[in-house]
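During the reporting period the student researcher (J.K.) took over the structure-prediction task from the postdoctoral fellow and processed the backlog of single-chain submissions. One of the processed entries is reproduced below for the supervisory committee.
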Amino acid sequence: MESDVLILPPKDIARLAQAVASRASGKPVRIALLRDAESRKAMGPMPIFPGIEILAFDLDTDGAFADFDISTQSARIAAEMEAGVQAFLAANRPDVVVEATGRALTGAMVCQAALESGYPVVSLNPRTDLAVGHYLRHLAHEKGLRYVFWQPDSVRAALDLKEALEASGLEIVSLGATLPASGAGEQPLSDADISAVMIEMACLANATGISLDRPGMNGQHCRPEELAGFYRPLEEGGIFAVPCCVDYAVLDGLPAGVYAVAKAQETEGKSTAYRTHFTPLSSCAHSWLAALAEVLEDGAKTPDLAYRPVADVCAIALRDVKPGERLAGAGAADYRGIAMRVDEIRWRESIPIGLLEGAMAKQIIEPDEPIVLENCVIDHTSRLYALRGLQEKLRLAS
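J.K. obtained the following structure tokens:
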């Protein structure tokens, strides 16, 4: 289904139009959009853009990984899906593959299959990029292709704010998202809100190389004018144990947006001043089209292999999980996300959420208890687990 409405900033419309017009062949750009039922609903009707042809392929992932026998069926399910993806790509021969599923496992399979088949990839899936983005960048480099992860709106807005402030000569001590307060008390956000912001801020940490202050971050709930008083180093009267970090805040009276706390330019004889810079978030339904321009403009450019993940998202149980019980996948009510530094994940033996699809409890896991290797067994036969192993080898080699 197509839509006559295009929701895209003017600068991105101009950039994409120029990239399409510059193609030597003069033929339409064929986009293979691979998605699942959830992303199909979220994305809505496909926009019409001159010179672009969108070919949609819907993957049936509903419940596919919720209750399977991890010893036998995981590899079979992944192989069947991969065969379907490869057949679709071979029949349509697109110029770019856009991966828009919501699961880490499905997204990893789609991205790997597309790159192995010789197609550049744009991923809209933060769960996949958190799980195996480092490996996918290296695979694209080996194939002479592009792998572009199109960041969530909040991450791209924070990156723009960071660039503007640093160009002004300001030193940033904290960067992240702000959420509007939805109620009184210590916990105004839903578990879904918390998981979403954990994923987005882990992506921001990886995009900037700026790590986290503590597991789960701080999530200070305050008035906007109070934020700079909290989000500064301990020695300056704040709450951070590190000089600079990614975090999020719940601010009274402001809409969703992004913030940066920066040191003001020092004046001789005066103490250091910290100020909060805020930008409201504007979401464009078709912003992912701008990623196509990046691929079309720089088709021969290989990914930045200096990318090193500094954060990931693990899980905390929301309910009692009994021994032998399976954990559901993305969007489940079994657990919520908690962003952590990668070094903490290793020594705590926490399990990244991408690897929890189809995992099974080994012992009772109580509410608010971290899900770790001691109390949970993951699916060692899955494609995602194998790719995660290859990514770990890349990390050790570097």
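The committee noted the following: The radius of gyration is 22 Å.
J.K. will present the remaining backlog at the next meeting.
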